[in-house]
Task: structure prediction
Amino acid sequence: MTAVVALAALVVGIVALITQPSAAPVASGPSGQPSSAPAAGDTTEADRALCTAIGPLLAEGDEINNAYGDLGDAGTPARDAATVKFIQDSLDWVQRVQPIIDQHPDADRFLQRSIQRSVDDTHLIALDLEPGPLPQYLRALFSDSVGAYSGPLHICERLGVTW
Result:
């Protein structure tokens, strides 16, 4: 009985392959374009608007990170003493940045994604950080956050928006 069912499934699969069109249709987004396609058109003004809106908070994030990093290496008494405040400041910052990203859906997808990656990394760091030496995965997350941050830093700078 099992062999008959398996054989029937094989026949149905082969028939389906033979009768299907050669290319499967691509799922489309609201504009009718493939959902994986980049946003159509010039996004310069939308990008500038996002950069202008988010720049002051990115500058504040720089201040939070630099103040914490300037306290010394992870695991030192000064840095350990400041860890709880850094976590609180970071989580508060994430809560204020996210709505600004969400309010600019027309900006270039790369710009949005790189800002979002940086914010998400900050959020994950704040959730996992504890006083003491940094585990390897948190060191990697800090590095990834810096890499993601270079996206908005360079794009916004090209648009004349600096912080």
Remarks:
- The chain has one domain: 44-158.
- The longest helix spans residues 44-69.
- Residues 44-158 form one domain.
